[in-house]
Amino acid sequence: MDWQALFTSVEANGLSVWMRESSSLLAFPTVIALHAIGMGFLVGASVAMDLRVLGFAPRIPMRALEMLFPNMVFGFVVNAASGILLLLAYPTKAMTNPVFYAKLLLITGALAVAAAMRKRIINDASRENDEPRERAEESSTRRDRMLAYSSLAMWAAAIVAGRFLAYTYKYLTAYELGMK
Amino acid sequence: MEAFLQSLQVWLKTTALGHLMNESRWAWPISESFHFIGVSLLFGIVGLYDLRLIGFLKRIPMSALHRLIPFGVAGYLINLLSGLTFITGAMDQYVHNPAFHMKILFMTGAGINVALFYTLTYKSVRDIGAGVEAPLQARIAGAVSLVCWTGVIVCGRYLTFFRPPARWCFWC
User: Fold this and answer.
1) I want to staple A38 with a disulfide (CB 3.0 to 4.6 A). Which of A79, A104, B95, B97 is the partner?
2) What is the pLDDT of residue A132?
């Protein structure tokens, strides 16, 4: 597979060139700002859910946490879209960097945990009603708490991985791949 | 004023923190990572509360959601501290950076909004449960807060594109 040829053709694409070389604020700067905003919505909603499962704000009914998922979807969509544009701008830089794959894996993991929490905890069919529990210990088993901790850890790690992308890449563009 | 800023900037770089930020390979990225985690906490948790104030997420009782705010405040403190490490390491990159000025402006707006909210409005929303809307004053406070913190994030991300010599800065 001739990766250099593939990356070169992607980087020659008009949208890629615009993202990378436009001096307009609406190009790279705004896309990356949107990526941060989406992160706030996505991680924030997930963190709120995790904190509730861990026992903070115990008067929030578990069932009400279901309302946080549209926020997560919104954040995810914004970040997937902005992420694709960022990837389009610098495909070589991202895809030759193992940290990028670690980031994607961590995000997938955190989302899987969120889905598991939704199924196990928030939509627990054994709950007769969604009266708030007075003591969080009654509503969360140890396994639920482990899910919440791993969610928090994975989001933190994903954020760190994302930041480190800018400091760990080996090749900026496909041209550099050809330089041995 | 210019001379004072110049000497302050030089002095900051001679401090232990200044040395760390400029000479260690990973100090800056680690500090930035904390900064981004703080953003997620601050914008995420406070943003959720703002959304509830405005009228979304009605099934979550406002009074209970407020219990998570300390985590948003923790995010703010993490960001304040990590932000100070950046200014210590490279004050010149911020002092004449119009994006940074705007960021501080938005932060001030958010701060004034928070102060007004807690002195004037909070009593009327403190005990609001699920399904109930907040009064107009509170809804405005929530909207202003969201706009201000969004502005802080956007300006923060724009910092690297407005580094001195300034791209444009008619007030510098």
Assistant:
1) A79
2) 46
Question: Are residues A162 and B29 in contact, defined by beta-carbon separation less than 8 angstroms?
Answer: no
Question: What predicted TM-score, i.e. pTM, was given to this entire model?
Answer: 0.90
User: Using CA atoms, how far apart are residues A125 and A14, in angstroms rounded to an integer?
Assistant: 51
**Which letter does DSSP use for residue A122 in this model?**
I
Which of A19, A43, A53, A151 best tests the B interface by mutation, with the highest count of B CBs <10 A? A43
Q: What is the complex's ipTM, to 2 decimals?
A: 0.90
Chain B residue numbers with beta carbons less than 8 Å from the beta carbon of A139 are none
| Domain boundary assignment for chain B | 2-162
Cβ <8 Å between A39 and B40: yes
Which residues does A1 contact at the CB level (< 8 Å), separation at least 6?
none
- pLDDT tens-digit profile of B1-34? 888 888 999 999 999 999 999 999 999 999 999 9
Chain A residues close to B98, C-beta within 8 Å: none
DSSP sequence for A32-70: HHHHHHHHHHHHHHHHHHHHHHTTSSTTS-GGGGGGHHH
The pair of structure tokens assigned to B42 is 């601050």
Cα of B26 vs its chain's centroid, Å = 23
pLDDT band per the 50, 70, 90 thresholds, residue A2: confident
Interface residues of chain B, partner chain A, Cβ below 8 Å:
26, 29, 32-33, 36-37, 39-45, 47-48, 51, 57-61, 63-68, 71, 130, 150, 153-154, 156-158, 161
Alpha-carbon distance of A107 to A156, in angstroms, equals: 10
B62: closest chain A residue by CA: A60
State the Cα–Cα distance between residues A155 and A111, nearest whole angstrom. Answer: 9
Q: Read off the pLDDT of residues B29-77 as tens digits, 9 standing for 90 and up.
A: 999 999 999 999 999 999 999 999 999 999 899 999 999 999 999 999 9
Joined together, the tokens standing for residue B115 give 């102060």
Q: How far is A33 from chain B (nearest CA, A)?
A: 5
- The set of residues, in sequence order, having a beta carbon less than 8 Å from that of A120 and lying 6+ positions away, is A143, A144, A147
